[in-house]
Specification:
About 45% of the residues lie in helices and about 15% in strands. Strands 1-2-10-7-8-9 form a six-stranded mixed sheet, sandwiched between helices. A four-stranded parallel sheet has the order 5-4-3-6. The chain binds ligand F0G. The site of ligand F0G has 22 residues, from α4, α9 and α13.
Length: about 350
């Protein structure tokens, strides 16, 4: 059996990588595509519903696919430092891959608006974390300006190598299914990922490796839904802090992915997003962060409405792990921990009451 060493080695011929390039990898990619059983039954619909569980990447989000490429290329080009603005996951991934490469990472994050797990990752991996009193979009403008003034490599998804790496998720979906899905649902923030998946699907299609193409469906939080409004917005707000973005950088590319594929953008309220996160955890045993659940919440609603017809094969990308944001998970749990005495009779009484014996 050949060893798996991450997406660059796996898809080397489809990526802009030279023969002698030193690859910076943490063995990202190769994530599971899981079929859901209980949720389609609850919906009462005949639907083949899958999730691409990107939370199982090394730093717990899909960003690692793009970061292995961006950091590999930065090092190849002689860069000693990388820089990004982030709602959390990009900063965690940048910090980890910079550590792996032996270079520095500088990250700008919106103060008080990133999930605790992500901050923990960035600081422990040794990034220099700058909290700004401004949202992601403000941070994005700042890092773009700094990157032209100082010798640091910008690793947000405006870096083309990021999208090259992220497109490999579409390759994996096709390989796992033996075909393309009918619909691919994603949470959309800065809009790099929907762009990257569409690149990947089209690439396999162009090379005759797959016949069909999915419709790309992008889901945003209602308070941060520039694609649904049709224009950028200045004050995005949502509990799903990962996608609290009003000025997506890949605006044109994402619109093209949606239009070319015959897909759509839509919005979900924060309660709808959190309900989907909890349903997935309770019904299927899969833990994703709130932003990720927007894809599932959107897919479920569109299946229920018939916009996604019965008989369809649907893939939802779960972009980040639920452990990234433990505060939200605990706050919305339906079964908060009981406080009991440390006695056999007490434990027995509680459990017997539950199982009715
Ligand atoms: N889901 C999660 C968990 C994310 O962290 C992000 C983006 C998205 C979805 C949206 O993906 O930006 O490609 O449309 N997070 C970025 C960050 C912005 O800084 O970590 P997108």
């Amino acid at each position: 059996m050949s060893e798996y060493n991450g997406i660059i080695e796996r898809y080397r011929e489809r990526l802009p990588i030279g023969a002698g390039t030193r690859i910076v990898s943490l063995c990202e990619g190769g994530t599971p595509l899981l079929r859901l059983h209980h949720i389609p039954a609850l919906l009462g619909k005949d639907i083949a519903l899958y999730v691409k569980y990107e939370g199982l990447n090394p730093t717990g989000s899909f960003k690692d696919r793009g970061m292995t490429m961006a950091v590999t290329k930065a090092v190849e080009e002689g860069s000693r430092a990388i820089l990004c603005a982030s709602t959390g996951n990009t900063s965690a991934s940048a910090a980890a891959y910079a550590a792996r490469a032996g270079i520095r990472a500088f990250v700008l994050i919106p103060e008080g608006k990133i999930a605790l797990g992500k901050l923990a990752q960035a600081v422990l991996h040794g990034a220099l974390v700058m909290q700004i009193q401004g949202n992601f979009d403000v941070g994005m403008r700042l890092v773009k300006d700094v990157a032209v003034r100082l010798p640091v490599t910008l690793v947000n998804s405006v870096n083309p190598y990021r999208l090259e790496g992220q497109k490999t998720a579409a390759f994996e979906v096709i390989e796992a299914l033996g075909r393309a899905p009918d619909f691919h649902c994603l949470p959309v923030g800065n809009a790099g990922n929907i762009t990257a998946y569409w690149m990947g699907y089209r690439e396999y299609h162009r090379h005759g490796l797959v016949e069909g193409l999915p419709r790309m469906c992008g889901f945003q939080a209602s308070g941060a839904a520039p694609f649904v409004r049709g224009h950028p917005i200045d004050h995005p707000e949502t509990v799903a802090t990962a996608i609290r973005i009003g000025h997506p950088q890949s605006w044109d590319l994402a619109l093209r992915a949606q239009a070319e594929s015959g897909g759509w953008f839509d919005e979900l309220s924060d309660p709808e997003i959190l309900a989907a996160q909890r349903l997935l955890a309770e019904q299927e045993g899969i833990f994703c962060e709130p932003a990720s659940a927007a894809s599932l919440a959107g897919a479920m609603r569109d299946v229920q409405r018939g916009k996604i017809p019965e008989g369809s094969l649907v893939v939802c990308t779960l972009t980040g792990h639920g452990l990234k944001d433990p505060d939200i998970a605990i706050a919305q749990s339906s079964a908060p921990p009981l406080k009991i005495e440390a006695r056999l009779a007490e434990v027995e009484r509680v459990i017997a009451g539950e199982i009715g014996s």
